[in-house]
């Protein structure tokens, strides 16, 4: 089974990874959506026992894809953070340790979960932008919305396919001629069934 699929969109070479990210070859950019850092900690604060290792697993996966693809930049299509409450000291320390291993610049579009005034330590090399973020033939957003003359990439929906018996819910890319919706990158994010 293929771990990735190469395709061309608007004259740009892209690799769609089964690991829920897109690599844009011409700009050496790894594109992903809906990481929801700190979500497990928000649930823990509400008394729901969720493992604290979720963020570490997501960051290890992200590091592997960055190394495999050769990406020199990461673009997050919103919901980098789940909630300000989730930025517990343990989460900040996990991110700090990860940035020492994986220091490629991160550009994050503000999503509906991202705190409006998020400021991270400068050496984390994470910058925030508002949508729409336009580069080349693409418009990048958090929530789906068409952009005249551009191909739009977004997140927010967390698309999944329901297949088989017993039923399996599998994250998927949901693509149309003018819009591409990425699956949520975070493993603890749920999903919306699409067809």
Structural write-up:
With about 200 residues, the protein is an alpha/beta fold. The chain has one domain (about 5-195): Purple Acid Phosphatase, chain A, domain 2. About 20% of the residues lie in helices and about 30% in strands. The protein contains three helices and 15 strands. The strands form three sheets. The protein has a seven-stranded mixed sheet, with helices on one face. A five-stranded mixed sheet has the order 8-9-10-14-13, with no helix packed on it. A three-stranded mixed sheet has the order 12-11-15, with no helix packed on it. Helix 2 packs parallel to helix 3 (about 90-100). The longest helix is centred in the N-terminal third of the chain and has 16 residues, at about 55-70. The model has no long low-confidence stretch (mean pLDDT about 90).
